[in-house]
Amino acid sequence: MTADPTTADRDTTVDTAAATAPAPAPRPTDAASVARRLEAILLVVDEPQSLVSLAAAVAAPVPAVRQAVAALVADYDGETGGPRRGFELREVGGGWRLYVREEYDDVVGEFVNTQAPSRLSQAALETLAVIAYKQPVTRGQVASIRAVNVDSVVRTLLARGLITEVFTDPDTGAIHYGTTDQLLVHLGINSLDELPHISPLLDDGSDGFDGEVLK
């Protein structure tokens, strides 16, 4: 059987086009260009990122990323002639992340509280319950338990002052969260020991098992 000449021509055209397609242009590696790409990445990350991770994200060598990070830190701290920013680029647990400067925590907290609804959503309540019972716990562990992304909910709980960052794992850079005294005030209890035990609230399936046995 002979091949369809039309199909053969089309395949040849596709192969030729693929072979002659220009390769993606390499991204510039000068400090200014790398720094701009780093800012874009740092604005959206929720966990500290290592220099290696940042280098992979912005397609630049690690030395160039290290130099750009140092330049951003100096710029945000007002060491290059510009104003000192209300945020800072901080190294935590071997990774880098943007943080609000400590002196502006109250301002940001008040603003977020005025924008947020007075009642927590069901998603926020469920996330808060997981953190309360499993603390200290990472964002990834909470997401695994709830089987959904919890990034925005965790930010809401942080802004409300109901949870706090307890510590950062030095190996993974993952932040571990725990509840605050403010949560105890809202719940009207003196300690987490007064939280109801989970086991009596869960259906262990014994009723269904007994029913099957009696049949």
Provide the domain count.
Answer: 2
Helix content: 40-55%
Shape: elongated
Strand percentage lies at 5-15%
Quick check: average pLDDT? 81
Number of strands: 5
Written account of the structure:
Helix 2 packs across helix 4, helix 3 (51-58) packs across helix 4 and helix 6 crosses helix 7 (139-146). The strands form two sheets. The protein has a three-stranded antiparallel sheet. A two-stranded antiparallel sheet has the order 1-2. Helix content is 50%, strand content 12%. Mean pLDDT is 81; it is low at 208-215. A hairpin with a 6-residue loop joins strand 4 and strand 5 (175-179). 16% of the residues are buried. It is mainly α.
In short:
The protein is built from 10 helices and 5 strands, in the order ααααββααβααββαα. The protein is mainly alpha-helical and 215 residues long. The protein is elongated, with a radius of gyration of 26 Å.
Key words describing this protein structure:
215 residues; mainly alpha; Arc Repressor Mutant, subunit A; three-stranded antiparallel β-sheet; two-stranded antiparallel ribbon; 10 helices; 50% helix; disordered C terminus
SSE layout:
Elements: H1 5-20, H2 31-42, H3 51-58, H4 62-76, E1 87-92, E2 95-100, H5 105-115, H6 122-134, E3 137-138, H7 139-146, H8 151-159, E4 163-168, E5 175-179, H9 181-187, H10 206-214
Antiparallel strand pairs: 1-2, 3-5, 4-5
Helix pairs in contact: 2-4, 3-4, 6-7, 6-8
